[in-house]
Q: What sequence folds into this?
């Protein structure tokens, strides 16, 4: 069994304290998986850290200026969706049919309003479309052609297929299609399962929000939907407990109801974000699901928990430089 990685152990110098009045906090991820130092070029390492830092700075500016947690989560994820280093928006992985089909969700912890989209193909920023579904429709989730049509009617920025295309992701699809079906290890890499982005925030009013955005998994079949747009699996926020965004093997995260399960343990058992996240991650791993979560409690306590070699992650709060990390040993 893979040992869970604890922020309390790996980032002892940055252990979170409860949020004081008028404080805010922002925690992000850019995917979890087989992220090892030996597989990362120095240039890519610098790119990833710079991208995480920019996302944190963007969301932090919103919160520091009195913006809401929802606004900060969306602003943060917009940055990550435009960065081809992540499997969300531009740089999303390809389906088996050679398309980019995008999923996203967002949730307001104050009202527990939520919006989600699945299988969208032409909206530059799926997280913005998820928010539009939440605020401008009677629904929680919209999918495929209907969601694309709603995006047009909502006046959101559209993008052609070329915008989402990157050579790296296309090459990953070709390797996936040519894989050796008798060798399970051939599907073990981060190329195929991970790269989702997400953010959780608490604003000056003490309100929580969470959001998640992804391109799904390389080579996914027609109509496949993972955990990222599923409220309670990949995303959940409730001012009574916490905000969660997940990244990992979506089928297992759906079966476990990871995001809601973590919040329920915090709310009803009084566990800390780290305790709840580690427990649920361990249960998900027993099913066969690997990945990671970020959690931000109603009191401002926060956690990273992942059972993979690494997770792109970061945290920002008033009065300190943004924290960013990639590998499991930092």
A:
């Amino acid at each position: 069994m893979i040992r869970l990685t604890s922020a309390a152990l790996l980032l002892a110098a940055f252990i979170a304290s409860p949020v004081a009045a008028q404080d805010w906090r922002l925690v992000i991820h850019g995917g979890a998986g087989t992220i090892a130092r030996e597989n990362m070029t120095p240039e890519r390492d610098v790119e990833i850290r710079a991208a995480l830092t920019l996302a944190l700075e963007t969301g932090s500016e919103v919160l520091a200026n009195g913006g809401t947690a929802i606004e900060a989560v969306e602003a943060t994820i917009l940055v990550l969706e435009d960065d081809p280093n992540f499997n969300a928006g531009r740089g999303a992985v390809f389906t088996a049919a050679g398309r980019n089909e995008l999923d996203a969700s967002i949730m307001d912890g104050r009202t527990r309003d939520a919006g989600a989209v699945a299988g969208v193909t032409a909206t530059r920023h799926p997280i913005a479309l998820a928010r539009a579904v939440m605020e401008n429709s009677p629904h929680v989730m919209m999918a495929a052609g209907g969601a694309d049509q709603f995006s047009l009617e909502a006046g959101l920025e559209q993008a052609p297929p070329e915008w989402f295309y990157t050579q790296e992701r296309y090459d990953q699809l070709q390797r996936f299609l040519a894989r050796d079906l008798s060798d399970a290890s051939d599907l073990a890499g981060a190329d195929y399962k991970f790269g989702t982005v997400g953010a959780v925030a608490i604003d000056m009013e003490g309100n929580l929000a969470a959001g998640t955005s992804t391109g799904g998994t390389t080579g996914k079949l027609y109509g496949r939907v993972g955990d990222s747009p599923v409220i309670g699996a990949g995303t959940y926020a409730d001012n009574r407990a916490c905000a969660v965004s997940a990244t990992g093997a979506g089928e297992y995260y759906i079966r476990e109801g990871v995001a809601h399960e973590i919040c329920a343990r915090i709310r009803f058992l009084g566990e800390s974000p780290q305790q709840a996240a580690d427990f649920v991650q361990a249960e998900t791993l027993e099913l066969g699901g690997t990945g990671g979560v970020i959690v931000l409690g109603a009191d401002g306590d926060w956690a990273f928990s992942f059972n993979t070699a690494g997770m792109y992650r970061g945290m920002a709060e008033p009065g300190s430089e943004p924290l960013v990390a990639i590998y499991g040993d930092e």
Remarks:
- Residues 5-327 form a domain with the Glutamine Phosphoribosylpyrophosphate, subunit 1, domain 1 fold (CATH 3.60.20.30).
- The chain is about 35% helix and 25% strand.
